[in-house]
Design a protein that fits this description.
The complex is a heterodimer of chains A (233) and B (247). Chain A is 69% helix and 0% strand. With 233 residues, chain A is mostly helical. Chain A has a single domain, classed as Fumarate reductase/succinate dehydrogenase, transmembrane subunit (3 helical TM bundles of succinate and fumarate reductases, Up-down Bundle), CATH 1.20.1300.10. Chain B is built from 8 helices and 7 strands, in the order ββαβββββααααααα. The chains are: A mainly alpha (233), B alpha+beta (247). The complex binds protoporphyrin IX containing FE (HEM) and FE2/S2 (inorganic) cluster (FES).
Chain lengths: 233, 247
């Protein structure tokens, strides 16, 4: 039972809302990243040389101000910080929510919430697990599931998605991402306090749909077109 | 009509409770939900059993005392308070599950009664304006813009019943806090304490053990006064402003 006392020495920075603000900001940083990443992947439609050229170009970006590969490292550090912030806040809020209702209802109906809003936490874990495999696959480990060459980004991509079950894994992850973004985009705008009217709320929800479909749909194109033999080595 | 009722019974805060099953016949569809429970209690009294404790006061939908979880929905299937819910919303032969609000911050006192004092303590922590006593000020000396006054009035209809907390999967009271923040924050009288109000109320909210909001909207759907989600956006915005101002 909560102690029936008035709290002293209050600070805005220690509130659950401040925690949610860090989630919203790190989440928006992720959205910016996945939009850019998705757009870059579409270079696979321009063929082997254009795709590898693009991958190489990312490493030269910002030169000579930044060293070779410098831009990518700035991005990586930023994303790692955002990920730590996002996940630490998610875990803290999850634990709070679990403690806030120690006795659950015998009967409880959901009347208004979307499925994506109710699966943010498990969806987030799905994305995290996928992220580990994705980095092993293409960045840290460079694992070719067909056992072929690994130092040619385009060929590694085609080899990976030629396997139907690899494409299936990526598509499942994209469903999880789409659901996370469907609720997450609107939720971030609400957390930032930008939805103070019925109209802006409806608009934020529409933006959630658009971001989800564009990001997950855009990412899904390359694996599907490899699987169906349109994008080939 | 004839009903089967599954009702939470718990003698006091310190003992375990359990669901109990009751059969009730002769219920009229014109009865309110609470009158239906009154009939059941008369029968329990006649049998020498302990009647079921539940809260009510005004029985006209304005005091906020009567909240019950009915078939998994706060205040039952209609957008109204439990006292204004009528048995015509149910069918002959229905099985109805009745539970108290479930939240760490709302401990069960007995059966279906919970202690909603946490809401009062949040008001004490900032949900007020400070005003000089004495004769009433001239009514038109502080002008309030019409749209702001309307918004303040619409969200001031919150009766503090706690349905938002009961319906929220996170056990958050953000809709309640947001309603107070918006109500006072839209009016000129609410400006001097605006930053300290939001920081104090949110700190007390967290201290009481309510969960954080995930913007899923079950609170609004359960609210008998239809307080909209945008009060939570307003709450977030006010907290962000207070943060920026160093509170
Ligand atoms: C890596 C693992 C991830 C985990 C464990 C995770 C978990 C969560 C959780 C639990 C929430 C809170 C949901 C709520 O309050 O309703 C959330 C919110 C959010 N997430 Fe994630 N997430 C992850 C990755 C991502 C990614 C990759 C993106 C974007 C591409 C993203 C974007 C967002 C956004 C925009 C929000 C909304 C913030 C808010 O509610 O204010 N998340 N995430
Ligand atoms: S008893 Fe007053 S609102 Fe229901």
């Amino acid at each position: 039972m909560a102690s029936p006392t008035l709290v002293k020495g209050v600070r805005s920075t220690r509130s659950t809302i401040a925690l949610k603000l860090t989630m919203a900001l790190s989440g928006l940083a992720f959205i910016g990243f996945v939009l850019g990443h998705m757009y870059g992947n579409l270079k696979a439609f321009s063929g082997h040389d254009a795709f590898n050229e693009y991958a190489h170009h990312l490493r030269e970006l910002g030169e000579p101000l930044l060293p070779y590969g410098g831009f990518l490292w700035v991005m990586r550090v930023g994303l790692i910080v955002a990920l730590v912030v996002h996940v630490v806040a998610a875990v803290a809020l999850w634990r709070r929510a679990a403690k806030a209702r120690p006795v659950s209802y015998v009967a409880k109906k959901n009347q208004a919430s979307s499925l994506s809003s109710r699966t943010m936490r498990w969806g987030g874990i799905t994305i995290l697990l996928f992220l580990v495999w994705h980095l092993v696959n293409f960045t840290i480990g460079k694992v070719n599931p067909q056992g072929g060459e690994t130092n040619d980004p385009y060929n590694l991509l085609v080899d990976t998605f030629d396997l139907w079950w690899m494409t299936a894994i990526y598509l499942v992850a994209m469903v999880a991402l789409a659901m996370h973004l469907h609720h997450g985009t609107w939720s971030a705008l609400q957390t930032l306090g930008l939805t103070n009217t019925a109209q802006s709320r409806a608009r934020a929800k529409a933006v959630g749909w658009i971001v989800a479909v564009v990001v997950a749909g855009g990412f899904s194109l390359v694996p599907l077109f490899v699987l169906f033999g349109v994008i080939t080595k | 009509m004839r009903l089967t009722l599954n009702i939470w019974r718990q003698a006091n805060a310190d003992v375990q409770g359990a669901m109990h099953r009751y059969e009730l016949d002769g219920v009229s569809e014109d009865m309110s939900f609470l009158e239906m429970l009154d009939v059941l209690n008369e029968q329990l009294n006649a049998k020498g059993e302990e009647p079921i404790a539940f809260d009510s006061d005004c029985r006209e939908g304005i005091c906020g005392m009567c909240g019950l979880m009915i078939n998994g929905m706060a205040h039952g299937p209609e957008v109204t308070t439990t006292c204004q819910l009528h048995m015509r919303s149910f069918n002959d032969g229905d099985e109805i599950t009745i539970e108290p609000w479930r939240a760490e911050a709302f401990p069960v006192v007995k059966d279906l009664c919970v202690d909603r004092g946490a809401l009062d303590r949040m008001i004490q922590s900032g949900g007020y304006i400070s005003a000089n006593t004495g004769s009433a000020p001239e009514a038109n000396s502080v002008p309030a813009a019409r749209d702001k006054a309307m918004r303040a009035f619409n969200v001031a209809t919150c009766i503090g019943c706690g349905a938002c907390v009961a319906a929220c999967p996170n056990g958050s009271a953000s809709l309640f806090v947001g309603a107070k923040i918006t109500h006072l924050g839209e009016l000129p009288q609410g400006q001097p304490e605006r930053d300290s109000r939001v920081v104090g109320m949110v700190a007390q909210h967290d201290h009481e053990g309510f969960g954080g909001c995930t913007n899923i909207g079950e609170c609004t759907a359960a609210c008998p006064k239809e307080i909209p989600m945008d009060v939570i956006s307003q709450l977030n915005k006010d907290l962000r402003t207070a943060l920026k101002n160093g509170h």
